[in-house]
Fold each of these.
Amino acid sequence: MNKVFLIGRLTRDPELRYTDSNVPVATFSIAVNRNFTNQAGEREADFINIIVWRKQAENVKNYIKKGSQVAIDGRIQTRNYEKDGQKRYVTEVVADNVQFLDSKSSGNSGSQDNFGDFGDVTPNDFSSQMPTTEVKNDPFADFGASIEINDDELPF
């Protein structure tokens, strides 16, 4: 099984290109903090290259930038190529799903969210404006007439 889940911040803005057959592909890298500190007591990070294809590639280019926090669900891919007579190996993550999390703003340490300042607003202030998912006693009451199924009519 080849499955990868990562959460990190973009180290650079995504680059969007198109293949010869006009398929969008975006590349970027993320910094993922390690779960432990080094001997000096500092937390280190790994810098991981990400590739994302098609519509999601265009979304990545349009909606996230350097410093944005993302969650990646994908797979590890290795490939090699030759440059100047030297064989080079590349390991990267091909993202199946990129979830946009909070973004890091210029004056933000990363610990606050970026949803804006709404003052002393409570969730109840919006309750009259928000659609509800409340289900009445009979959740199927508005689906129309009843359907009768008879085993004698089944083709098998």
Amino acid sequence: MTMRPTDLAMTRRHALGGLAAVSTLALASACGAAPLAQGAFPVRYSDAEWKRRLTPEQYFILRQAGTERPFTSPLLREHRKGTFVCAADGNPLFASSTKFDSGTGWPSFWKPLDRAVGTSADRSYGMARTEVHCLRCGGHLGHVFDDGPKPTGLRYCMNGDAMLFRPG
């Protein structure tokens, strides 16, 4: 098989594009908020106990401030009436009536339930964001942004693996 110079250039271009895509996905999948101090929350367990209680995906997100890949959570397509709760401790977080399709690939809400979540500054990756965590266990849930719908104008962009859905 004979390759023309343009074939070689196209192959290099595809390879470099693929590497860039993989790098971008790796960065996006490790959202990077620093884990919160364990002692500040009413629900506390040792690291070994959290690993026993949670799936590997839940542990990565809730205890290591990771991020799931976009468009992978079954909760993205959850439209029944009910409550989204913390996967680590069952704390009610969001009413289904506040969920909306943000098009970002993560379950999004315009308002949490009262006394359900806390926030902290996240300055990882050279960005200034607001991390959202469970108020009972401190588990990382996602981030909140100011580009959401009325009435709050907020978008709570949550990791589906950090939550469970309770119909009702």
Amino acid sequence: MTKADLVEKVTALGDLTRRDGEVIVETIFNSVIGALQSGDKIEIRGFGSFRIRQRNPRIGRNPKTGARVEVPAKKVPYFKPSKELRDLVNPGEAGTKA
């Protein structure tokens, strides 16, 4: 699903114009991005949570030349799905332990 598909779904749910759907989707995305940039955690019950994880610096390799490359520390967004979402995606595995 693309962003345009999501806008279409939102627009179809109510008596909204395409522009209204775009504003709603953009507002949600910008809110999530803004919260992550400020270091906040976003939790959407029944869907999952977004947060920032810190990656430590490491030594990598250039796949073309094999040369060692310093990879600096960085922050990366991380999504953890809720149990409800995992159960909906894997209906046959609900309630089973590995």
Amino acid sequence: MPKTTHQIHEVALLRLWQIIGDKKTSTPPLLPIGRTTFLNRVKDGTYPQPVRLGARTIAWRASDIWALLEKLGA
């Protein structure tokens, strides 16, 4: 698991701003790419699919994001 400023449990769900970072709240990115690039790669199947939490709310499994980071680092 990558080392971050916050420890995130593997079964947690991550919102988009937690993955790509947020300048307003000084949240560092786990994956330093833009929002559109991330969502386009989700759409084409390169990145993991999100989990729908509500009508307008989605999140990604932390374990899927860690696997993606390990794959990209290899």
